[in-house]
Write a structure and sequence with these properties.
With 265 residues, this protein is α+β, with helices and mostly antiparallel strands. The chain contains four helices and 16 strands.
């Protein structure tokens, strides 16, 4: 992995224990169109962000940082995708752990203004993720309300081997779901679930390969799906009920995929 996807500044929460998902970001070809889409869908507002790789904005909800969006260089023909970041007490040490376990460090570690230090990596199967070391304690986070990240799920070939990579790098425990036809592991940190790993074998999309999907909380998944369609996005997986709530997979105008999650009632 050599690209710079997801390079906007991670922030937006209380101090995160190492390994905790702490930020999501997106690199796009048009900042204006992307701001229009997500502003209308989630009610985000936008402020200028740091520019380690070019122009970027911070997405805010009620004044709190939620996500980062950066502009892809015009000469870089890269997939547009949401990237999750995981907290680290030492980004350099985490990057070295990624390399030693068979992953790749494509960007960094490097300082992002005075906010902290980041690295953009990929696991041994190629799924891209970020590492974020905050310079200062963070403020109160916004979670569990519409328009905020709710969950991150890795789609890969087979869960067990890749889960071991993340467990070694970030100190997770795993909770496998025992089933003859369902390959899924929940990654836990200090007993609480923080991310999922789903193995789908040959069903991994050829145009994407293994990848992380970010779920965003919504009030009503069906209404949000209609809104995505009206805003020029695409519906990839129609709304359906799951053990965790009503969920749908969609894509924005540039093709960045994400999921919508309405919690159980």
């Amino acid at each position: 992995m050599t690209d710079a996807r997801g390079a906007a500044r991670p922030n937006g929460g209380t101090p995160h224990a190492p390994g905790t998902p702490c930020w999501v970001s997106l690199m796009v070809r048009s900042l204006d169109a992307t701001e229009e889409f997500y502003g209308a869908l989630f009610g985000w507002e936008f402020r200028p962000g740091p520019q380690p790789f070019g122009p970027s904005v911070r997405a805010l909800l009620d004044g709190h940082d939620v996500a980062g969006i950066g502009l892809l260089p015009p000469d870089r023909h890269l997939p547009v995708a949401w990237t999750p970041y995981f907290a680290s007490a030492d980004a350099d040490a985490t990057a070295e752990a990624v390399r030693s376990r068979g992953g790749t460090v494509g960007v960094g570690p490097l300082d992002v203004s005075a906010a902290g230090r980041l690295a953009i990596c990929s696991d041994p199967c190629g799924a891209v993720f970020g590492v974020w070391q905050a310079a200062d304690p963070l403020g109160t986070s916004v979670t569990g309300v519409p328009g905020t990240p709710a969950w991150n799920e890795l789609t890969t070939f087979e869960s067990q081997t890749v889960a071991k990579f993340y467990e070694t790098v970030f100190g997770y425990d795993e909770e496998p779901e025992v089933s003859a036809d369902f390959d899924h592991i929940t990654l836990r940190l200090d007993g609480r679930p923080v991310a999922g790993v789903r193995g789908v074998g040959r069903a991994v999309p050829r145009d994407r390969g293994p990848h992380w999907t970010t779920y965003f909380t919504v009030t009503d998944t069906d209404d949000a799906v209609d809104h995505v369609r009206h805003l020029g996005g695409r519906i990839l997986t129609p709304a359906r009920d799951s053990p965790h709530g009503r969920v749908a997979t969609v894509a924005d105008r540039e093709g960045a995929r994400f999921a919508l999650l309405q919690g159980p009632r």
